[in-house]
UniProtKB/TrEMBL annotation:
Belongs to the CutA family. It comes from the Eukaryota. Gene3D superfamilies: 3.30.70.120. Pfam families: CutA1. One of its GO terms (molecular function) is copper ion binding. One of its GO terms (biological process) is response to metal ion. This is Protein CutA homolog. The lineage of its organism: Eukaryota, Metazoa, Ecdysozoa, Arthropoda, Chelicerata. SUPFAM superfamilies: GlnB-like.
């Protein structure tokens, strides 16, 4: 857990937050974003993606095998 400071509706907010890393596929990002938006307490929740360009091949194979395409 970490502390986050941000501006919301013209005021500085300070909250405790948990940073989550969710392993998925680009083709599943819309569904994942929808789920987070429906279950997150904030009106505007952070969902971002980072493309994988390189990595440990056995790990990338496992990720490919375990997360189905949409």
């Amino acid at each position: 857990m970490f502390h986050s400071s941000y501006e919301w509706e013209g005021e500085i907010q300070k909250d405790s937050e948990v940073l989550m890393v969710i392993k998925s596929r680009t083709s599943r990002l819309d569904d994942l974003t929808k789920y987070v938006r429906e279950n997150h307490p904030y009106q505007v929740c952070e969902v971002i993606s980072t493309p994988i360009q390189h990595g440990n091949e056995p790990y990338l194979k496992w990720l490919n095998d375990i997360v189905p395409e949409k």
